[in-house]
Design a protein that fits this description.
The chain has 278 residues and is of the alpha/beta class. It has a single domain, classed as 3-Layer(aba) Sandwich (Rossmann fold). 45% of the residues lie in helices and 17% in strands. The chain has 12 helices and 8 strands. Helix 2 crosses helix 3 and helix 5 runs antiparallel to helix 6.
């Protein structure tokens, strides 16, 4: 059942499943909390209380009220939600929300006990010319994302998603039809683009200031980086020594939580039990 949290500027939609230590899930740009539709039941069965939230301007959250949709903004929303639900919590953040999880951990260490960043945009993006020439998935993904930004093209976003999901979930066609309908609502694409134009510099600056354990999960076929492992390792290297770890998932793209939710659930729960709850 959808619940709402009123925040200065608008309201955030979320739902809660299960009982146990709290995990808060936050999706990436141009998506909605149902991106975690397979991961939520896996985590709940493992003994966790799981809150999945719609990012501001996305899903069932309000739109048109937000001055910005940056990682710092989303981090503040997540911290407010954790307070509402009674933290502390582990934040699982995908893409832009990976950077938001970093900022939340740095600014509210009493409320964030651990972070899991999935395909995260947490550092300043550096494009690889050699990668664009050599690596087809990276070239296709980069060109489609540029088209989304420059042409405000929903069609190109859907094309990017086709590249970003090398392994399609069984309900992929139905999910994408519903997502297209959501992004076609008046004002939704504008909110998506508002988020897309933000820089991850704020998250990168927060990396040295976190004090909780962190796990970065990357698909080896993620089209957003020429070398996904190098990006993940760069994020961990910017954290205080000993806090971070990297998990690579072979053959998966930018959405491993939907492509192989069982594997992401095992990585996440093992990390929590060994590094956060131990």
């Amino acid at each position: 059942m959808t619940e709402f949290l009123d925040i200065k500027g608008g309201r955030i939609a979320y739902d809660v499943t299960g009982e146990g230590p709290l995990i808060v899930l936050s999706h990436g740009i141009g998506d909605r909390r149902q991106a975690f539709r397979f991961l939520v039941p896996e985590l709940a069965r493992a003994g966790f209380r799981v809150a999945a939230a719609d990012m501001r301007g996305h899903g069932e959250s309000s739109m048109g009220d937000w001055k910005s949709i940056s990682r710092t903004d989303v981090a503040g929303d997540l911290v407010a939600l954790i307070r509402r639900l009674g933290g502390p919590a582990v934040i699982v953040g995908h893409s832009l929300s990976g950077g938001a999880a970093t900022i939340a951990a740095a600014t509210a260490p009493d409320l964030v006990s651990g972070i899991v960043e999935v395909g995260p945009f947490t550092r300043k993006v550096q494009y690889s010319l050699g990668g664009l020439l050599r690596i087809r998935r990276y070239r296709r993904g980069s060109l489609l994302m540029a088209g989304v930004l420059l042409l405000r093209s929903l069609k190109m976003w859907m094309g990017y998603l086709d590249v970003a999901y090398p392994e399609k979930p069984a309900d992929y066609a139905a999910y994408m039809t519903a997502l297209r309908a959501k992004l076609s609502e008046p004002g939704r694409m504008a909110e998506f683009l508002k988020a897309m134009k933000t820089s991850p510099a704020d998250a990168g600056a927060a990396l040295p200031r976190i004090s909780c354990p962190a796990l970065v999960i990357m698909g080896t076929e993620d089209p957003d980086w020429a070398d996904p492992r190098a990006e993940a390792e760069g994020i961990i290297a910017a954290m205080p020594a000993g806090l971070g770890a990297v998990a690579m998932i072979k053959g998966r793209g930018h959405y491993p939580h939907a492509e192989c939710p069982d594997e992401v659930a095992v990585l996440t729960t093992s990390f929590l039990r060994e590094r956060v709850l131990a």
